[in-house]
Fold each of these.
Amino acid sequence: MAEKTDGKRIVLVTGATSGIGKAIAATLASAGYLVIGTGRRARPSDLPETIHYEIMDVTDDASVAEAVQKITNTYGYPEICIACAGSGIAGAVEDTPLQEAKAQFEVNFFGTVRVVQAVLPLMRARNAGRIILIGSLAGRTGMPFQAFYSASKFALEGLVESLRHEIRPYGVEVCLLEPGDFKTGFTGARRKLAREGSPYLARFSTTIAIQEHDEQHGADPSAAGAAVLRLLRMRKLPLRVSVGPLFQRAAIGMRRLLPDAWFEAVYRIYYRL
C-alpha cells in the first residue's frame, strides 16, 4: 500500500547521497516535494530526514528495476526524475585501461539510461512526467586528461536531443542540466589513472591540479538545487541549461563563436599544455 503523500509531487533523485545530487534532493524537499533519494549503499547518516531513501545501483539492471518498483508501490509513481548518479576518472587516453573507460560509461551514461528506461513507462502511461539528466559543461567541450568523463557526458547530450523527439507525443519532457565546477566531494572521489613513467605524467599532474583547484573554488552545490527548482516551475522544459561559475558558462558560449584553433589555444594556455 502506498504511503500518504498529502498531494505532494513525487520526485526520484539518483545519486542523492552527496554533492550535487544531495543538494538537489534537499532543495526540492524543502520546497514541498516528496523526494526519494537513491544511492548504492545504506542510507548515509548525514542525509536530511526530509529525504526518503532507497538503495539503487545504477550499474545493475535488477537493482534499478526493483528500486523503481518499490518506490512506486510505497509512494506512488514518480512524476519527476532527476538523474544525478555519476563518477569521474582522470588520465591520458593512452594510459587508461579499456575496462576503466567502460566502467565510466557504465555509471555516467548507461546508468542514466537504465533509470530513464525504468521511469518512462510509468510517465508515458499517465501522459505526464519530467526527467532532468545531470550532464556537465565538460559534455560541451572536452577536458584534457578527462577524456572519458567528457565523452560520457557528450553522450548524454545526444541522448537527450534524440529522446525529446521520441517522448514528445506522450506528455513527457526531458532536459539536460550542465553544471560547471562545484565544490563537492566529487573532486576527492575522482580516480586518477596516471601511470609511473608515463610520457604524459608531468602535464597530467599540472593540468589536473588546475582543474581540482577550480573545483574546490567552485560554486556552492545549492545553486544546482535552485536551478532544478526553477526548471520544475517552468511551463516547458528547455533542451539544456547550464549552471555554475559565470566565466565557465561564458567559455562555452565562446566555444560556439571562436574558430576551433583559437579555442584550443585558449585551453592550452589556461591548462599549461
Note: The chain is about 45% helix and 15% strand.
Amino acid sequence: MGVIVIIFAGFIFGWLLSFGGLNKYNTIAGLSMLKDFTVAKTIMLVLGVGSLLLLLELVNGNAHFHIKPFYLIGTTIGGLIFGIGMSILGYCPGTLPVSLGQGSIDAFFGIIGGLIGGIVYTLIYPLILPLLGTDLGKISLYSLMGDTFSIGYIIITILIAIVMIVGAFLLHQVDVKNDIKSKRWILTAVGLALLNVLLFYKGWMNRPMGASASYPYVGDTILGITNNSYYHAIVNSGVWEALFLIGAMFAGFVYAAATGTFQVKIMYGRWVEYKGVSKPKRIIWALIGGFILIFGARIAGGCTSGHIISGGMQIAISSYVFAIFTFIGFLTTGYFFYTRHKKSD
C-alpha cells in the first residue's frame, strides 16, 4: 500500500481525534479521575456503530477477521500495565503524536519514554515470552458460534452494539451534569468507526487501526536492534503504524494551526491541580508513563486503537479482556496517583 495513502489515513485519524479533543491530556486523565467520560463514551459508540458496519462488511465477504490471540497472563497483565501508563501519561500510543503536532511537549517526552519501553521489550522478549502464558487462540464471538454468520451470531452482535450505543449516551448524560456538553464526540466516534471499517476492507488496507507496534519498530531501527525474532515479527505492522502516526501528527498540527489553538505547552490544568507546577516533575512522569504504556501494550499485543477499538469491533475475547483490565489499571491509578494525593492549595 502506498506510503501517501497510509499517511492520509493517519491524517484522517488525527483530524478526528483533534476534532473530538480525544488526544488531550486533560480529557484522558480526566477519565481516570472520573471527571470526564468523553473517551469512554466515544469508544463505546465506536464499538457500537463499528461492530454493525463491520458485520455487514464481513457478511458480504468484503473483509477478513484480524483477531489478536488471547494470552491469559499476557493480555490481562499487559492491560493492567497499559492502563497504569495511560493514566500517568494522560495519552494513548495513537494520541501522543497528535498532541505533539499541536505543541504538547509532555507528549514528546511520552514518545521518548515509549520508544525506550519498546526497545527494552525487544531486548528482554525471549525472557518475557514464556511468562505470557498459553496462547488460547484467536477467540471471538464468531469462533464461539461455530465460525459461521448464523442468525444467533448476528442477533448477539446487534444486541452488543445496542448496549454500547445506549451506554455511550448514558455516559454523555453524566458529562452533561458535569457541564461537559459538547456533542463532537458523536461525529468523532462515527468517523473513527467508518475509518476502521474502510481499513478492514480487503480491497484497500485489509487491516485494522493500530499504533503501539510503531514504538519498538522505530526504537529498534534507530539503534539497529533488528537481528532478532521480535523485530521481524512486528516490522510489517511497525512500518504501517509509523506512517499512520506520521499522518496523525501532521493532522494535529494542521488542525491546531487552522483553529488557532497551536501552543507549545508542557503543563495542563488537571496535572497542575493534582500534581503541582513543577515542569521537571511532569517531564519525568511523562517519560515513566510512556515507558509503562508501551511496555504494557507490547505485553498484551495491542493498545487502545489496535486492541480495544479494532478488536472490540470484531467482538474478540482477547480485546474485551484487555479493555477490562486496562480500565482497572487506569481507574485504580487515577485514584492513587491523582485523586488520593491531590496537591493541596
Note: The two ends are 54 Å apart (CA to CA).
Amino acid sequence: MTAPHFIDPARFLSEQLEQASPDLMRQMLTTFINALMSAEAEAVCGAEYGQISADRVNSRNGYRHRDFDTRTGTLDVAIPKLRTGTYFPDWLLERRRRAEAALTSVVATCYLLGVSTRRMEKLVESLGITRLSKSQVSIMAKDLDEQVEQFRTRPLDAGPYTFVAADALVLKVREGGRVANVHALLATGVNKDGHREILGLQVTSAEDGAGWLGFFRDLTARGLTGVKLVTSDAHAGLVAAIGATLPGATWQRCRTHYAANLMSATPKSSWPSVKTLLHLRL
C-alpha cells in the first residue's frame, strides 16, 4: 500500500508504539531522558562523571527522583544532584508538552530508521540544549540504538498470536546524497492476554514477495505461533508469504484497503452510493 503524502511516518509509528507497546515507549523515554539529563549535568560540571580534569568546576552527588507524566504513563526520572548549587532540567519539566512530543518523535524515528548522532543533535537543539559535546550525544545515540535493536530482535513469547495484521508504508529517505523510496513492513498481533503488540518492523528497498517472505520468516523464527487469521491488503507477494510461512492461518483482505481500492476505481460523483452499498454488503 502506498501511504498518502500527508502521513508523517514518525508520528504514525509513535501512535502505534503508544497504543500497542506502551511499556516499550516508557522504557525508551525513561532511558533517553535520564541519559540526556546526565549528559547535561556533566556539561555543567565541566567533565564527565568520574573523570579527573582541570576543567571540572563541579561534581555529581547522586540523584533525586521525580515523576514525569506522559501519554504512555508516569515515568520515574532520575535528576542528577550536584555538590555545589543545583541542576534542574527546565527543558523537560517546565515545557512538558513540547518536550514529550519531541522525545516521543525521536524515539519513534529511531525505531523506524535507526539511530544517528545527527538525529540526536537535532533533538537536543529542539529542546534548547546547547552545552552537550558530540561525544555525549554519540553515547546517547548508542544507548538508544541498543534498546531499539533489543526490541526489534526480541523473542515473540507472548503467544499464541491469534490475529495478525500486516501493512507497508512507502517512505522517502536520503541515501548517498539523493532521496529514495523505501518500504517499511509492519506487523501487529493480538497476544494471549488480548493486548495488541507490534511484532516486527523492517525497512526494505521494495515491497515484493522476497521482502515479505523474509519478514515473516523472521517473525516465525522469533516465535510467532498460533496465528488463525491474517488481515492485509491483496498484495500478491504478501499473500504468498503468509501462505508459505503460516500454513494454518486464514487470510482476509483488509476492509479499509478494499474500500480505498474501490473508491480509486469509482467516479467521485458515485462515491456516496457506492459507500452505501459497500456498508450494506460488509
Note: Confidence is low (pLDDT under 50) at residues 1-7.
